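As a warm-up, study this chain.
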Amino acid sequence: MYSNISEKLEMRFPPIAMLKSDTKPEDAKGPKDGKGGCVMSFVAQTIAKRVTTCFGRENVTCGGINVGFGWGSGMANEDAIDFQATFLSCGLDSAPDRKSYEKRLSQMKRNTSEMFLHGERIYADFETAKHGIKNRPVYDEGQYVIFKALENLEESETPKSVIFIVNPMELTALIQINTSFRRSGACLLTPQASACQAIGCFTFQQDESNDPKPILGPIDFAGRSKMKHFIPNEYMTLSMPWKLFLKLEELSENSVLQTDLWQKFKD
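Now compare it with the structure written out below.
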């Protein structure tokens, strides 16, 4: 698949595509059977090395990946939600039941328990975190999520999400193209979401809209920490449903990218 935007911007990292499937590609790189971890390390390899990577339901070890990749909510019950909300806010200081939370931490490895003790702090307090968890867009389909370099996409394949990897100037140009046809409302979304949720379920949700918006990420440092070996820190992701990608590609043929002003920045 050819991207005019990527070519005109001379992107260091061309876009990648996320697909859902019930079949695991034979040539895809991914975790060993029974192993999990953060999926963003595999996403980063597709971005930087242009290899196809795959992550399955059997590899989930993180509470956020299930919902991020459209494999249900990932929350078995109210206690699970409370535990996740405690971790995503201020850890022990946010726990509604400190003794119960401390007991869970005592069963973890030391480095993991330290992280859960202080919390990830992407929410200011427990109640806000719980509200965020309960209002995530939830889907449930497919056994595998596959990441491919856009240039390796086959004609028969339709991505669930197209992901640009952009530096500040590339982001500026993409925002300009994305806003060029809009007349009102927000033009770009930054939901309180983990890296996998931004490129996954929140982008899936935009596909259901008649006026889809791109999603900017990653805004979580946990996800970024798994990408930094492959992707410089100044880069961000801008994900969008397939139909919005096609629209922006069409608009890019007669856009700011054809102006002398852009050429001055490019040069």
